[in-house]
Design brief:
13-stranded antiparallel beta sheet; globular; mainly beta; Jelly Rolls
Length: 306
Amino acid sequence: MTKYINSKIVTRLLCFTVLLASVSCTKVDRSDDVTAGDPPPVPGGFTNSSQVAASNLLAYWNFDANNNEVKSNTAPTNAVNTTSSTGIKGKGLTFNQGFVLYPTIPALSTANAVGSCTVSLWVKFANNGSKLTSFFALSRDVNVETSWLTILNVASETGNHPASDENLYLHSWIGSYANGNRSGGDNINDYGNAGVDYQKFQGANKWVQYIMRYDGASSTIDLFANNIRVSNNNFRVRNGLGALVATVPTRVVLGGFPNTSTGFTNSPTEGFHGLYTGSMDEVRVYNKALSDQEINALYILERQGR
């Protein structure tokens, strides 16, 4: 009887041990959900997205309480066809052919504010086959700007591709007014040989982190989608452009180009311009070209809601 009982106990202990081992060896959860407690740091020692290049963060929109720019608490002067919605981290903002226009934000309105810079934002959108889409623009003032090609345009070539195309075609433009007139450049994840000149990226109707990085020291512009550099190698270096110089005061537009459609009286709305349909969250503007490690950390932490 004792032998029988002992063997049953041993058998149960073995089964419990196997069960524990199977639980500990289950497949890694790729959703990156963070449980309660102290989260582990990501490379660079960061545990929260607010720690990434904190001293270089000029402006930030999280849309949690309202549409104000968080650091300066600047409220928009106009918001058209936008509603609060679920974001990648807390609340986000949904646009239905809409835009948001801001008055001058002091940190973004000095001549050398974005000499080197990074614009990071999360967007959820699709191609539309008719209109170009702009997510973020830093421009000259509403009565001064004469062109949609301004200081910073973070956009996508949605108009050249049908809604059935799941690839995203990111396109950003930068401009400098060092000599009074605009000198600029751009980069795009299109044109040439895919996989060699640029990287294709599938992400239609999904949350995607889109980063535009410009290094004024090397005159290099790059685009990132979900921590992958997708920009065209042929257009990276813009020799001679140098650190960007802005004409102040400046204005910010989310969801549209600086044109008559968004309140810029002297900047014509081109036929290929559209207002944004989609969602946006976690918009950040830095006065430095973030390192690859910082971009990686920002992507991981924001995706985890940290």
